[in-house]
Amino acid sequence: MKSLVIVAHGSRRQASNDEVRELSSRIATITGQTFQRVKAAFLELAEPSIPDGIQQCIDEGAKEVIVFPYFLSAGRHVVEDIPAEVDIARNSNPEIKIEIVPYLGSIDRIVDLIAEHSSVG
Question: Catalytic site residue 77?
Answer without folding.
Answer: no
